[in-house]
Amino acid sequence: MKLPTYAGTLEDYVLQGAPLTPRAPSVPLTRTAFAAAHVVSDPLADRDPWQGRPAIDWDATLQFRESLWDQGLGLAEAMDTAQRGMGVDWETAKELIERTMRAAKAHSARPRVACGAGTDHIPLKDLTDPVRIKAAYSEQMEAIEAAGGQLILMATRGFPAIGAGPETYARVYDDLIGQASQPVILHWLGDMFDPTLKGYWGGASVDEANQIVLDLIARNAAKIDGIKISLLDQSHEEVFRAQLPVGVRLYTGDDFNYAPLIEGDGTHYSHALLGIFAAIAPAASQALEALAKGDVDTYHALLAPTVPLSREIFKAPTQYYKAGIAFLAWLNGAQAHFIMPAGFQSSREITHFAEVFRLADQARLLTNPDLATQRMSHLLALHGIEG
């Protein structure tokens, strides 16, 4: 088929990958891996896509999660990958969490599921002080714990909006961690993922933010499972994780440098909480299996081709990466259409989707090549590209 290029041309492309077959790992994994999954829309039921609650295809959404669990991966539920604050409201996220937790409890693997608690059910203009921010977090935390999920304290737009300083972050986070019934996962999301989070933790620099977070973790180490860092900065993550207390994990959210970070430096390593793992699940699962067997060569052979794919999906503006995740799910038959809540599929251009198609093939991640080719051809025709 002819695919558009970033040079503005059309070039012939012939599939070349030998697809990986999704399967369960044959040994216990030595890294915890949470895949952050998207939601599947129900376009026939959706009304006024830019207003109100989105219509979700619950069967397809849960089947996708079960496929991740079948491959030995855990799940990060109702995170920004699921379009929290970008088409998916809290009421929908709450229902998603409740449905997912029921499915997880019935699944034979008894998978780990961690769920995002935030403040997005309260309009930003009403989060005018720390008391309101804490109350908003508390409401979502209670709902998640009632459903049986582990807590991820998602970064909130509320703190930067009120210009919160380090003392405010410390006071509110101390209280939230203290009221959680089980150890929580902290969440440090860079402004490349959400520009409104610039200056999170209240420090004037990344170095100051580091110290604020490390002090927070040291005070609450017994109640902190780990921290997810999504700053797309490998050296920062390596330095930061070496300073963590024993027993507190670093969950990489670095969708550019996950392979070396998860492998580690011989002394420390990162676990994973990644949106890209939902898109590359067969490669991620089988690479982690190889790592658990001490087969580092196979680990890198499986993950190396996924890195260019991930860098394309997470290219700037990074917050639009969700379109690439849903696109791959559609190509691979995990959903019957390429429609997203709030019409989010329009956030990326056809040239991007063509490049994702090429790179997914080269990473052996088009599990049904005939179906993927057919669907790519339909999308190209929609954009006036035939042949």
Characteristic key phrases:
TIM Barrel, eight-stranded parallel β-barrel, alpha/beta, 387 residues, globular
Commentary on this structure:
With 387 residues, this protein is α/β, with parallel strands linked by helices. It has one domain (29-306): TIM Barrel, CATH 3.20.20. It is 42% helix and 11% strand. It contains 15 helices and ten strands. The strands form two sheets. Strands 3-4-5-6-7-8-9-10 form an eight-stranded parallel barrel. A two-stranded antiparallel sheet has the order 1-2. α1 (58-70) links the parallel β3 (33-36) and β4 (74-77). α3 (130-147) runs parallel beside α5 (166-179) and α5 (166-179) runs parallel beside α6 (206-219). It is globular, with a radius of gyration of 20 Å.
Topology:
Elements: E1 2-4, E2 10-12, E3 33-36, H1 58-70, E4 74-77, H2 90-106, E5 113-117, H3 130-147, E6 150-153, H4 158-161, H5 166-179, E7 184-189, H6 206-219, E8 224-230, H7 234-241, E9 249-252, H8 258-263, E10 271-274, H9 276-279, H10 281-292, H11 296-303, H12 306-313, H13 322-331, H14 350-362, H15 369-382
| Count of discrete alpha- or pi-helical segments spanning 4 or more residues | 15
Main β-sheet, spatial strand arrangement = 3-4-5-6-7-8-9-10
Tell me the structural class: alpha/beta
Shape: globular
Number of strands: 10
CATH topology: TIM Barrel
Distance between the termini: 6 Å
Overall pLDDT metric:
97
The run of helices and strands is EEEHEHEHEHHEHEHEHEHHHHHHH
How big is the Rg? Answer: 20 Å
- Low-confidence runs (pLDDT<50, min 5 residues)? none
Percent helix: 40-55%
